[in-house]
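[stage:ingest] chain + small molecule (zinc ion)
[stage:ingest] validated
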Amino acid sequence: MRVLALIILLVVSFLVIKSFKRKQEMKRLTKAKKKKVDNIVKCNVCGLHIPEQEATINRGNYYCCLEHANQDNLPPAA
Ligand SMILES: [Zn+2]
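[stage:predict] done
[stage:export] tokens:
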């Protein structure tokens, strides 16, 4: 019976820790989401506004897609 009590204790503490961690994770995620929304950048080719998260970055410029990033590529110095 002692083993059973030990197992129950382990399961209960595991569940408590799990729910606690989930709460913290939720807090962190909502904070991160707020930050992401604030960061809107403009495509250097078409001027489309997109979240920095989804932007393609090339040579310090932002682009809405890979195609525009390649299109705006400066030719290599001769
Ligand atoms: Zn674009």
